[in-house]
Amino acid sequence: MLVSDPSGGVAPALSTAVSAISPSLNDGEIAWQAAAEVTDHCSRMERAAIYLALGCGDNFDAIVQMLAFVGRNKMALSDGLKAKLSRWLDGYAGTSHETSLRPVISRLPAHHR
Question: Cβ contacts of residue 56 below 8 Å, gap of 6+?
Fold first, then answer.
């Protein structure tokens, strides 16, 4: 679904809703923070796919890839990153993204760092 933006163009409604709800937690910031913590544990191919998505600006997809990797490998995330991911996902409240990702994030083990 697209909505009109003030410049006369169209913008994705979800992006508009997310920025209105959570302006301090955007996909890019969260994606790069997660990459700094997660990618050292990834295979070369997984790391390349994540950084390719980040480089192309597909931050949401990169986050989903990292969450899938972390979930598959039962990897612990720092308490800070886990909390940020949960708050970031609040911006997607009521969407299919929240429904599918909330259980993944809530099951992630956390460690103090």
Answer: none
